Amino acid sequence: MSCKRHQEEINEALAAVQTALSAHLAAHLRTCGECLEYYEGQRQLLASIDAGVRAMVSEEAPASLLPRVRACMEPATAGLKGWRPAWFTAAATAALAITFGVLRHNSEQNPLRTNPGGASSDDSAAAVLAPNAPDAEQHAVQKQTVWKKAIAPSPELPDQRVEVIVLADQREAFARFVAELPNEKEATAGLTRPASEPEGVPVEIALLQIHELKVEPLEPSEEK
Amino acid sequence: MRELVLIQPGRMLEGLTAREAGEAHANREFERRLAECGPLAFRVAQGVLRNAADAEDVAQEALLRAYRNFARLREPARFRGWLVRITFRLALDRWRSAKRREKRETEWMRPEQRAAGPTTEEVAASHEFQERLERALEELPEKFRMVMLLAGIEGYTLEEVATTLEIPIGTVKSRLFFARKKLAEKLR
Prior knowledge:
The structure holds two protein chains of two kinds.
Chain A: H1 3-15, H2 23-31, H3 33-57, H4 65-108, H5 111-114, H6 121-129, H7 136-151, H8 171-180, H9 185-192
Chain B: H1 11-49, H2 52-68, H3 76-108, H4 125-138, H5 142-152, H6 158-165, H7 169-187
Helix pairs in contact in B: 1-2, 1-3, 2-3, 4-7, 5-7, 6-7
């Protein structure tokens, strides 16, 4: 094998990481001064390259780096924290608006007030509380008719937003639900508009019947 | 008497508390990674840019990006690899734009205004070599350059380089071999 081939092999061996010289190359280096000189030169070159690269990446990070990053992190975190209440406030406002809308809608369409028969709320309450009274059936029929009117779609219904009363512990979930509503047009319509029923079809409302009511006195606690 | 207890629902409050606790935990975790990997990001950037101020800017940007993406970078090895790659890329972008700017400015200047080359004999041979090495490194393909820089970081083993870059160790060795061979050819 010529010295040129040996020198190519030296280049390969030195460039490789964690690789020892082959036995025949080591034997050649022991006998060939030119190749040994080449080997030493190349070994030094590779060592200089490694040292040069190490020098490039061994500089200590400046002490200001981490504080700078932390300083930039804080506004980002604050921004996130600030965003959440804003989102929640918007959702809560929307929920409140819907609630007031429903209340107004109900008050405008209140069957007890719009009842042409002139049944007062006290009468209706009496009908519910005393279902066995002689005129209970008549009251029930009146209520059914009026209720039917109340839930029927009204052509002159103003463009008002329906509002929903939500318990405090359910606000967040409801707000999330409302936030998703724009993508659910059918659900929105179902929530915010009364069901469309053809006029004249009676709505069946079963009266609550209590067959047996047993009232027992409270038992004293064992704890004193 | 039996007692009737009314429990005020406080789910929302509990939910917020849990979320805040989660955020605090994530922040502590990121702080640990920041202390561990911040210097590494700086060194990778420094290896590309060879300018401490620029490297610090790039490392800062990379770390902030890591912070924003921390939810999907919880695994330490994944975090380190992602950070190294993003730092390398950001540093390369900055280096390229600096080169373009430098080229424009150099072309704009008249020949007599250009900075004179080293004329004194005091210029150290090592300094010259370092400059040649830097130029040779810049000409290396990115994947070889990145392996070369990572392997150059003190205390960083080839196994760690492989883990960081999510490549087999055999690939690390072959890339390192190619990179060193190319550099030696250019500097010979």
